[in-house]
Amino acid sequence: MNIGILGGTFNPVHLGHLYMAEEAMKNLKLDHVIFMPNYIPPHKENSSVSAAERVKMLHLALSDHPDFSVSTFEVEKTGISYTYETVEELHRRHPLDTFFFIIGEDSYVNFWKWKNPEGILKYVEVAVIERTGFPKEASSKTDELFRQNHKKAFRILSETVDISSTDIRIRLKEGKDAYELLPRKVAEYIKEKKLYLCSPWTFQQLQTYVKEHVKPMRYVHIEGVVEAALLLSELYGGSRDAIALAALCHDMLKDHEVSFLLELIHRYGEMPVDDGNSPQILHAQAGAIYLEHVCCIRNEEVLNAVRYHTTGRAQMSLTEKIIFIADYIEKGRNFPGVENLRKLAGENLDQAVLAALSGTIKHLESLNKPVAAVSRSAMYYYERVLQERTKHEQ
């Protein structure tokens, strides 16, 4: 038999997956297509939808397709499943069958980077659902790998079906309709079980995430910012819960790669702050996006405090100013002038904000480094505010 294999998280399975299987079946004259969901570790993003639920949705999606079936081989293994191990096991179980591993153009381009790609080619043929937008040279390394292994990819020309599980999850989390992208029975199941809805992470969940995703010394700094922010809250007021949450999360993505931050920013339709000329501040923008769209935190004060904690901005809320200053004066900081800034923060918060902005801008200019436009406008704003306040008091 000629059997197709379509792998993925299927989180959730959508019409694009069915289209890929149907196109492969028709063009390659397959007898059967196996959908093989991956295992997702419980601590990963979107793992609130269990493996059992993903498998259930697959069974519902395929219930009207007798030539399609579900294999739970990788789910049952748990842990990391490498494709080369999976196809070797399939060959061992069914040595007389020919397997066609079905992938999209984007996966083919990066196939050479996969774990033991030669081992995959040893046991399966590869079918590629072609997609526009990929220049020929993008797949040059994979093409060479295939030549070296005396293999040729089976290319399937098809209409572009631009559907992704990630986009569906985002739309559902934001309360938008994405059901037209799903098989009817899957859409009904998601509605019934209320899957992919946005449930705000608790403080404890966020604390666990932050601890696991920043370096140990960064977490010490974060604890210092929480402590400093709460002390400032005692002086100036504000919601202690919101302030503690913003302080905890202000650097939650600080130790991620810039490529991850940029991908996250673009995914949610934003442009990088300062046109990406200051990569050292991207974690603040990306952190606010992550908090809102992944962690489902909707408190605008918290989101803005995280977003602007590195740059500041004109007309900051009390929470924003407290986080902005706490990041400067927490007990681990020891730069020249920090003691004066700590003293000023205890006397006049706006003056401390201006002093911090002015000092940072002067330092960056002395190093010929770019200054974010939002920081410069913030400095001018607080200069005016304090001047007007002084005139009024006189």
Describe what is shown at a glance:
It is built from 19 helices and six strands. The chain is of the alpha/beta class.
In total, how many beta strands? 6
Q: What fraction of the residues are assigned to beta strands by DSSP?
A: 5-15%
| Distance between the ends | 91 Å
What is the tally of helical segments? Answer: 19
Structural class: alpha/beta
What is the alpha-carbon Rg in Å? 26 Å
Strand order of the largest sheet: 3-2-1-4-5-6
- Low-pLDDT runs: 42-46
**Global morphology:** elongated
Describe the main β-sheet briefly: 6 strands, parallel
Mean model confidence by pLDDT: 92
Give the SSE order as H and E letters.
EHEHEHHEHHEHEHHHHHHHHHHHH
* Residue share in helix: 40-55%
Blueprint (SSEs and pairs):
Layout: E1 2-8, H1 15-28, E2 32-37, H2 51-62, E3 68-70, H3 73-77, H4 83-93, E4 98-104, H5 105-109, H6 117-123, E5 125-129, H7 140-148, E6 154-156, H8 165-173, H9 184-193, H10 203-213, H11 216-236, H12 240-249, H13 258-267, H14 282-293, H15 300-307, H16 318-329, H17 338-345, H18 349-366, H19 373-393
Helix pairs in contact: 2-9, 4-6, 11-12, 11-16, 12-15, 12-16, 13-14, 14-15, 15-16, 16-18, 17-18, 18-19
